[in-house]
Amino acid sequence: xxxxxxxxxxxxxxxxxxxxxxxxxxxxxxxxxxxxxxxxxxxxxxxxxxxxxxxxxxxxxxxxxxxxxxxxxxxxxxxxxxxxxxxxxxxxxxxxxxxxxxxxxxxxxxxxxxxxxxxxxxxxxxxxxxxxxxxxxxxxxxxxxxxxxxxxxxxxxxxxxxxxxxxxxxxxxxxxxxxxxxxxxxxxxxxxxxxxxxxxxxxxxxxxxxxxxxxxxxxxxxxxxxxxxxxxxxxxxxxxxxxxxxxxxxxxxxxxxxxxxxxxxxxxxxxxxxxxxxxxxxxxxxxxxxxxxxxxxxxxxxxxxxxxxxxxxxxxxxxxxxxxxxxxxxxxxxxxxxxxxxxxxxxxxxxxxxxxxxxxxxxxxxxxxxxxxxxxxxxxxxxxxxxxxxxxxxxxxxxxxxxxxxxxxxxxxxxxxxxxxxx
Length: 423
Prior knowledge:
Layout: H1 7-30, H2 37-62, H3 69-74, H4 76-102, E1 111-119, H5 124-127, H6 132-143, E2 149-155, E3 159-167, H7 171-182, H8 193-205, E4 212-219, H9 232-237, E5 240-246, H10 251-264, E6 268-271, H11 277-286, H12 305-329, H13 333-357, H14 362-382, H15 396-404
Parallel strand pairs: 1-2, 1-4, 4-5, 5-6
Antiparallel strand pairs: 2-3
């Protein structure tokens, strides 16, 4: 057994990984047929396995430095047949790891119910004369996922539920919510934030499922509100209230909205121009995010050390499976060992890159995922210099083929028929 490197395999693995990354990003961005994230991530890792595996196989076919010329002559056909098996293995491991990563522990629930609480008091005629807040709310409804439910509460002196929780699975429901929001008008009266949040909680309580909920509340005023007592149910149930202060001249209004958001684990947004509300609404919604191995955690687990460890361990298992899968492709137990240990190391590095590199910025996160894929390919390809490799079949078929090969060691050519005549 020897420590050796096939530089062509390194180059082809990186090239295959890069091509696979592009295909994976297209999948991640388009999410065809509304596939769940569990399947998307599994397919992503399967594509990476196909790209790196195909690159490694082509490199060894051209220059068989790791497996030797005998592998190319006898087992190349078998290796092509084993390539799909590696792809299936990575799909299975990736899907399983994503399933584990999406599990909610410690009372954490995935937010699927969104309650929009919109101020329609008389002061809105000055801060939002064009009713941009209603347009922003309509745009958000159109952007929400099909598994979301949405409700709308308006408030001035009194609070009212203008749209109870409704599923957005159908186009008809989306249009219904948009029509309700479009019919809203600015009224007269003060700013009853206490009544608004009470009605929002009543709406949330109408859902008997265990789905998580959040509130988006927009206001331009101030009212008497005791954050120490009136937010108890929100804080005890982990329901975030994200607040938007629109054109607030009174500092006490901004302070109250900021305190409400801080107490419930939400975010406060200070907006001076009503025309930018659409982007703010979308930004709040995007922070819900899908908690996946390939994207930033933007939900309640954003700062969770538990999910950080789970992501890193998941990538280590994915890397190990990829390395062993490459060994299976070549039907070589020594390569499986070398690539497997290399995959474990590469997965650790890739997991750290994803965990500490992802930031929620589209372009930056794309580069982080590219780096993680290339690190997986490079470290696995180079690890044959750390763990020595040699010939050693994994499958019985490979051993039988070796035994039956003409001229192989330990077997003599058939005896010549003594009774035959001729030369």
